[in-house]
Amino acid sequence: MVLLGVESTAHTASVGVVGESAEILAIASDMYRPPSGGIHPREAANHHVEVLPGLVAQALEQAHVRPSEIEGVAFAQGPGLGPCLRAGATVARTLSMLWEKPLVPVNHCVAHVEIARVLSGLDDPMLLYASGGNTQVIAYASGRYRVLGETLDVGIGNFLDKLWIALGGTFPGGPAIEAAAKEGRELLPLPYTVHGMDVAFSGMLTAALALRSKGASREDIAYSVEATAYSMLTEITERALAHRHAEAVVLGGGVACNERLRSMVRSMVEARGGSSFAPPRALCVDNGAMIAWTGLLALRAGTTSSVEESIVQPRQRTDLVETPWRRG
Ligand code: ATP
Ligand code: FE2
User: Which of 18, 65, 143, 312 is most buried, taking the most CB atoms under 10 A from its CB?
Assistant: First the structure.
């Protein structure tokens, strides 16, 4: 079985093709980078509309498959920015009708989780999903992925992006903060906000900007923000592991590209006698292959959608969708 997946929830338009055993046959992506400031949803959507047809052609060529060999068309139904979601859904509906292949809606968060899980080879790991809009500790139970802990305000990636832009940088902030942090020397005090298995970042944003106005360097701020924010994530992941008597962790989402976060989680898990895994960076950030793979799992379990039912769901939470392929 070969599936094509379309991703367009936020900044990145991407088309992926995957095979039966999660072979990544193609990923063709194009990220919208605003000239300054954050993402304007309609401008990002216009970008996606322009680039998606070309990305479909590119992905088919990379994968060496003809449209007749594609057995289903998956797309990210939510969560995400409405106009961006509609751009991807429109392309997926068109391909599905044109090729006469089933249309498969996929939850974007579940897709981050599933691609990390299959690549890890672990059957039932705990998941730390850290991305732009989301920060969640997730475990599977009774037909769905359950959110054990999450951010109470902004996603960690959005926090990093906002901070970096306020410090004079450009989007995306996460990788730039990672580079700047390597030059940081001093650990500055920042609010460490953990409530049970939840976290919050807006207080840290205010405090970091206050430090900057008192003369702290961008490098020291970056270093301190990484140390504090990633400790918070590591702590809630450890608490979730302890409660579930689990020992394996998989990371996913764009912020899981971060080497410091990976190594902090790895140290914590190894100290408990367990193991952790993070996918290659191209599969941590938004990509069409994770949508195609989750679509393949869903299609195998019998999930398809009519065009009428395929309406996008900007607020579709991780724990709102059934994952029938994980039963049994
Ligand atoms: P969501 O899954 O919430 O919809 P998203 O659509 O914003 O997230 P992702 O590609 O999963 O997109 O994540 C993007 C985020 O990852 C951005 O906020 C970016 O700054 C962050 N990011 C990317 N690389 C790194 C890195 N090396 N260190 C920290 N953050 C990073
Ligand atoms: Fe994402």
Answer: 18
**Separation of 157 CA from ligand 2 center, angstroms?**
10
For residues 295 and 317, what is the distance between their CA atoms, to the nearest angstrom?
Answer: 17
- Does residue 261 belong to any structural domain of this protein? yes
| HSE, side-chain direction, 13 A CA sphere, residue 115 | 35
Q: Which of 160, 263, 264 to mutate to test the pocket of ligand 1 (most atoms within 8 A of CB)?
A: 160
Task: Decide if 185 is inside a domain.
Answer: yes
* Residue 225 shares a structural domain with residue 293: no
Q: Ligand nearest 225 Cα, by number?
A: 1
Residue whose CA is at the smallest distance from ligand 1 atom 23: 254
Distance, CA of 173 to CA of 132 (rounded, Å): 10
Do both 83 and 226 map to the same domain?
no
In angstroms, the CA 46 to CA 30 distance is 12
Ligand nearest 283 Cα, by number? 1
119 lies in some domain: no
Identify the nearest ligand to the CA of 318 by its number: 1
Same domain, residue pair 181 and 231: yes
Whether the predicted pLDDT of 302 surpasses 70 = yes
Overall average pLDDT of the 165-187 stretch: 96
Distance 253 CA to ligand 2 centre (A): 5
Q: What was the pLDDT predicted at 39?
A: 86
Domain total of the chain: 2
Same domain assignment for residues 217 and 255:
yes
- Phi then psi dihedrals of residue 71, to 5 deg: -100, -5
- Domain residues for the domain of 90 are 3-112+283-326
Give the global pTM. Answer: 0.95
Pair (70, 207) in one structural domain: no
Whether residue 38 is predicted with pLDDT greater than 90 in this model: the reply is no
